[in-house]
Each structure stands twice: as structure tokens, then as C-alpha cells.
Amino acid sequence: MAPEVKIFSGRSSRYLALKIAEAYGGKLGDILVTSFADGEFQPSFEENIRGDDVFIIQSTFAPADNLMELLLLVDGARRSSARKIIAVIPYFGYARQDRKDKPRVPIASKLVANLITAAGVDRIITIDLHADQIQGFFDIPVDHLYASSIFIPFIKEMNLPNLIFASPDTGGTRRAAAYAKIMNTSFVICYKQRAKPNEIEKMTIIGDVKGKDVILLDDIIDTAGTITKAAAIVMENGANSVRAFCTHPILSKNAIERIEESRFTEVYVTDTIPLERESFKIKVISTANLLADVIGRLRNHESISSLFKFE
């Protein structure tokens, strides 16, 4: 008899997990979280999971309690004799700390990978890691999904007449080049110099955007400083319009206000992180069908890479 698939969620991603479970054709498993007066909490599975393949959905954005809750859920599933434990982490937090960029600092993404593995996870499913090499921080299989599989069809339907892609910094050059190749168009790069973290000193554009409908691509919007500055420079250089497609909407501090006051026509994000409030410029494209499809493919031992092959 084949093991049963059961889908559970931590509190930070329940809104998304409900949609994933519905798209998969099942229901979200029952979890009870007991909170104590000092802020400590204890999650418990309220149904039998012995011998089952357990999928635990939880993004690990701030606060750190979200990561801790994921670890506790994994440990609880392991101690409840789950057959396999698959952590579905739509947004993998601490991914920007993937190397030592100055002396005497941690490599936080490696530490988080160690914690998740030690807790008892058998497999990871995540979307648009900030750095591809983070997959190598795990000694277990990692299914690294790309938001391009949901963004590209959407961009095609927009049918922009003079489409060109742009990267808001040099680190996103490969992403912009990949989208440009799929859509048979070109791309430009915005080169930035930082005075300090989250503060841009100077930005210039490499390439020609005059008369173009520009789409800026990024994996994360945090304070929105970089991407709104890039949008302004693109328009100042003669673009017809500028939009953005970004996977993870952290949107800290006054990021939403910055976007609303920016030159963007629209900004498209996914639901890996919930929006604090709605915005007339920010549109959300759900990852639920993609993640449900991947869960089904794992269940049936089917290819996942075929999801990201475009004609």
C-alpha cells in the first residue's frame, strides 16, 4: 500500500498552504499551536501521520519564530514516525547571507541549512533562492523551483509591443538574460554603487531602453529602494513604460509607499510572503498551483525539471 500524502502548514504560510492543498485535491492537515506566557510555543499534529509522506509548508521570513516553528514541526513529524518529511519553504530566509563578505561574520544560510537537515527533513522544495549555490549547503535533495514558470506565461499574455528585460543590479544579470532568451528579446543592466546596506549612492544603466516597454526582474523586494531607483532611471532614459516581476515581496519599512509613488505601471509579486496590505500597483500571482503540481510529481516519481522548459 502506497504511503499517504499529508500536507501541513506553519502559521506564517497557512494562507498559501490552504490554496496548495486545494490545488492538490486534498485538505490541509490539522495542527494545534500552544503558546506560553513567555512567548514559547509548541506545535502538535492533531492526526495520525505514522508511515505517511508529510509535506510541511512554511516560509522562513522574519521573525525568527517562523524558522523555529518549522524546525519544531519537522521534529514533531519525525518523532511521530512519518515516513518522509518534505519541507516546502516558498521563501528561504537568511539566503542573502550566503558567503563571508567581510571578516568575522556568519554564513547564515549554511547554518539554517544545517539546522533544517539536523531536525530531520528528507527533502526541500523552495522557490528562487537568492543564490543558486545554497542548494549545495544541503546534504539532502533540494528541488529549486523558478518563478519564471508562472511569470513567463503571464508576460506573454501581456503582449507588450517593445518588450525588453532589465536587471536592477549586476547580480541579476543571469536572470534577465534567461528571460530575454525565452522571450527572444534583449536586456539591459542597472549598475548600482551602495553607500551602505539598503542605501544606493549611484546608479547607471548599461544598454538602450528608449521607446521600450521595460520589465525589471528580481528575486526579492525588500525596502524597494533599488528597484524604484532603477525604474526612475529607465524612464529618464526614454522608456515607454516600466513594470517589475519579483518573486518574494518582503516589502519592509515604507517599501509599499515607495512603489506607489514610483514610476512603475505595475509590480507583480508572488504569494511566498503575505502582503501586509493591498496596493493599487502591486499584483499577486499565486505559486499554489506550481507547488501543488510539484508535490504531485514527487508523489508519482515524475520529472520536475520539465516544468521549467519553454519552447
Give the gist of this structure.
The protein has 311 residues and is an alpha/beta fold.
Structure, described:
The protein has helices at residues 14-24, 65-79, 108-119, 148-158, 173-183, 225-236, 255-260, 288-299, and strands at 5-9, 31-35, 41-45, 53-57, 84-89, 123-127, 142-145, 163-167, 187-196, 199-206, 213-221, 241-249, 266-270, 282-285. The chain is an alpha/beta fold and 311 residues long. Helix 1 packs across helix 8 (288-299). Helix 2 (65-79) links the parallel strand 4 (53-57) and strand 5.
According to DSSP, the number of beta strands is: 14
| Form type | globular
Which strands sit side by side, in order, in the main sheet?
10-9-8-11-12-13-14
Mean pLDDT: 94
Task: Extract low-pLDDT stretches.
Answer: none
Notable characteristics:
alpha/beta; seven-stranded mixed sheet; 29% helix; 311 residues; five-stranded parallel sheet
Q: What's the helix and strand layout?
A:
Elements: E1 5-9, H1 14-24, E2 31-35, E3 41-45, E4 53-57, H2 65-79, E5 84-89, H3 108-119, E6 123-127, E7 142-145, H4 148-158, E8 163-167, H5 173-183, E9 187-196, E10 199-206, E11 213-221, H6 225-236, E12 241-249, H7 255-260, E13 266-270, E14 282-285, H8 288-299
Parallel strand pairs: 1-4, 4-5, 5-6, 6-7, 8-9, 8-11, 11-12, 12-13, 13-14
Antiparallel strand pairs: 2-3, 9-10
